[in-house]
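Pasting as-is:
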Amino acid sequence: MDNLSDALEKLKIASTDSATDSVESCLDCLLKALANNKFMRSPCVEAGLIPPLVQLLNSTDQEVLLQTGRALGNICYDSHSLQAQLISMGVIPTLVRLLGIHSHNTALTEMCLIAFGNLAELESSKEQFASTNIAEELVHLFQKQMEHEKKEMIFEVLAPLAENDVIKLQLVEAGLVECLLEVVAQTVDGEREEDIAQLKTASDLMVLLLLGDESMQKLFEGGKGSVFQRVLSWVPSHNHQLQLAGALAIANFARNDGNCIHMVDTGIVQKLLELLDRHVEEGNVTVQHAALSALRNLAIPVVNKSKMLSAGVADVVLKFLQSEMPPVQFKLLGTLRMLIDTQAEAADHLGTNGKLVERLVEWCEAKDHAGVMGESNRLLSALIRHSKSKEVVRTVIQGGGVKHLVTMATSEHMIMQNEALVALGLIAALDLVAAEKDLVGAGLVSVLHKLLSDERSAPEIKYNSMILICAVMGSEPLHKEVQSLAFINIVSKLRAHENKTVSHQASLTEQRLTAQS
């Protein structure tokens, strides 16, 4: 059939008259035409073939359904705009219903799965999928499959769908987790390529389900859930993929204080430390990264910090100080920063570790890795702020860290600016003489002038900048710079600032500047 308008007419009739005998031959011809010439797709769309084809999905004839699905798939293949058109025409609920009715028909089932795989990539499809019983249908279908290829087809649909939090919970409630655990148990010792592939897909999907707050909490079950316990058993496994998934799962479970406190109290930290110890020398980078992520999250609640420090977390983490992998460096820094927050003794101990400070200063210059550079600066500042120790300040000065803290004060992130200013204030208060040369060389006074002159600077920034000005007045060269830049004019204006803390500090700073002018 060469004439598209003829095909359109026949399909329009067929879509409203299920008794039309020519519908199958018409679809057959259309599929052949599409198979032979990919440029036929646009004429099909322009001729208006999509609406009657969608209508034919209501047919009771399985062969018609199969051919219709294939024709739509062929026409809309690789076109997000046409796929979006199908979604807006309500094709998703129709296909889910067909999957439920014809799950015994292998060809129809595969056609539905291919369609789902394509449509699920579009964000606009997720809401429609969530309003159907797709989770139940896919889990039911998965439970029946024995062949690797068929399971892989279902996995390819599940992965994009599971990115949606509503569908995550639906999949958990439909029993997908039990299916995934079974796949893991069956393939963990397998050496065939398909076993290794299925193990990775199943464990990755498990981790993905745990990214949803509701689905994660449902599986945690107060730390007593059987699924939670099974996933924990993956960490000491000899299989790298399971170690990775287990560590990532713990990191995902550790997303609220209650879960973190329970996990630390039940000895999970020790499992993670043992895992890291196995990966120090030429270890698996993804496992290192995942285990450090889990430790970082677990260290967030205040009550966990001292327990984790006593367990030796800092010492194990420091073993990765020589890592050249930015993702590992980033998590290592974040874990140490979380551990020392409010922990003066630990901050003092780490802050006087010359090798650590030397490495931090080196990473503060890692311009190719903004995350590592930012975390290094923040940890350098945190060591000073939480220890308030002259020895730590000396170690940072000797290691060349002062200039990086001055640069950090110019960050676009207010929290980093503030952390830098507080650390610099402590340096000036505890050992101004030793830091003087570096503060002058880094242009501290000029930076403070800009921060106070900038109307966009937050009240905390203005306050801490004035505190720092007062702190450096004891240094002759810094004092001269303050006088040369006429700070008194800026500060006097800040006496009228709407923030009372800022205005009060402005009065005190003005008095100090006037007295020492």
